[in-house]
Design brief:
This protein has 117 residues and is an all-alpha fold. It has a single domain, classed as MazG-like (Helix Hairpins). Helix content is 73%, strand content 0%. It is built from six helices and no strands. α1 crosses α4. It is globular. The model has no long low-confidence stretch (mean pLDDT 96).
Length: 117
């Protein structure tokens, strides 16, 4: 199923079922899951290590590298969904609230086309 056909809640349910089938709940404290996100994010970063900007785009188009990138992105997302299950944060609400905060902090008219803060 594509992103456009999938609800976040359905993905959270899939992750919850995966964890439940393995009885991993005792190991999934907020601390451990946050650390897992960081570890998986580091593995994602490793896919682009030492690449300049054009080469990073090329890596994302290379089928073998793209598959590894997708795996690492899925790992990060899985941990994030699991953390949201464990601590009861609605990711859609959190994202919308954060985008509002970011829009105030980084107004488009001031930051458009700029990456420095």
């Amino acid at each position: 199923m594509a992103d456009s056909d999938t609800k976040i809640d359905d993905l959270k349910t899939l992750v919850r079922q995966f964890v439940d089938e393995r009885a991993w709940q005792p190991f999934h404290s907020p601390k451990n899951l946050a650390m897992g996100i960081a570890c998986e994010a580091a593995e994602l970063m490793e896919c682009f290590l030492w690449l300049d900007l054009p080469a990073s785009h090329e890596a994302a188009r290379d089928p073998a590298k793209r598959s590894a990138i997708a795996d690492e992105m899925a790992d990060v997302f899985c941990y994030l969904l699991n953390l949201s299950n464990v601590i009861g944060i609605d990711l859609s609400e959190a994202l919308r609230a954060k985008l509002i905060k970011n829009a105030l902090k980084y107004p488009a008219e001031k930051y458009k086309g700029k990456f420095e803060v």
